Amino acid sequence: MEEQLRTGLVGAGPWARAIHAPLLADHPGIRFTSVHTRRIEAGRELASPYCAEAYDDFDQFLSTVDAVAFAVPPEVQGELALRAATAGKHVILEKPIAGSLEQAERLADAVEGAGVASLVVLTRRFAAETQEWLAGIGRAGDWTGGSAKWFSGALLGGDYSTSAWRHSGGALADIGPHMFDLLDAALGEITEVLAAKHEAATDLWHVMFGHSGGAVSTASLSMRMPVRPTLWQISVYGEHGYRELSNNNATGADCYTALLDDFLAMIHSGTSEHPCDVRRGLHLQRLLHEVRHRAE
């Protein structure tokens, strides 16, 4: 590429350190320039190995970049990403894209109004195996229903077990967007939450969806299950039989690199539309909102 995209990172937690920072720094089309954190010491610690600059002033940080990747809690992202988009910066958003539906709507309006590129880090969606599976399902068509499950012990111990927003939002907020996105992509747009139940002690969610073409799907999610390694699986069934995708070989690094490739292609082609752009994030936020409402 003739010119690298100046890109900054907001956040310095485990996911920022493991995925965002090293892969932004490693991508040939990106110049990883800056880190913004509330505590400047944390930002300096993350930025130093990559010769990036650390800032605790967000406006000053924005002046150094053309694009921003976020790795912060949803309510923080909702506020700061809106400011970044309004300033004309392209954005890479974590899921859920905001702390509330209202905040997500404001963010989506800001991104669309500014005409900037946006992608949501729906990691599994960018795996080559997932794209091949979805393409095969799309060619066959006429699926009656499907199911998804994701069980892990991530909140019982490990790098993310001290994450306050994950404990607060639980599996619905952290895992839900991934699995709902895949069910939606496989079976057609989710138009209705038919049922939802939450077992608080195990953070176990059971959800039933209705899709635009008449298919019905279910999802079961928990981050408090003593399951190692993480188990995730999605399947569809109908007149063409049964097709399943589970724990594929693509790593988080593989998926994030593919996301960055798409992000740069959007910017260099001047498009702001993508299957995983901010509008997708808003659709998923609406589903999260409705699921919580149905489970009350």
TrEMBL record:
Residues 5-117 form the Gfo/Idh/MocA-like oxidoreductase N-terminal domain. InterPro entries: Gfo/Idh/MocA-like_OxRdtase_N, Gfo/Idh/MocA_oxidrdct_glycsds, GFO_IDH_MocA-like_dom, NAD(P)-bd_dom_sf. SUPFAM superfamilies: Glyceraldehyde-3-phosphate dehydrogenase-like, C-terminal domain, NAD(P)-binding Rossmann-fold domains. It comes from the Bacteria. One of its GO terms (molecular function) is nucleotide binding. Keywords: Oxidoreductase. Residues 162-241 form the GFO/IDH/MocA-like oxidoreductase domain. Pfam families: GFO_IDH_MocA, GFO_IDH_MocA_C3. The keyword Disulfide bond does not apply. This is Predicted dehydrogenase.
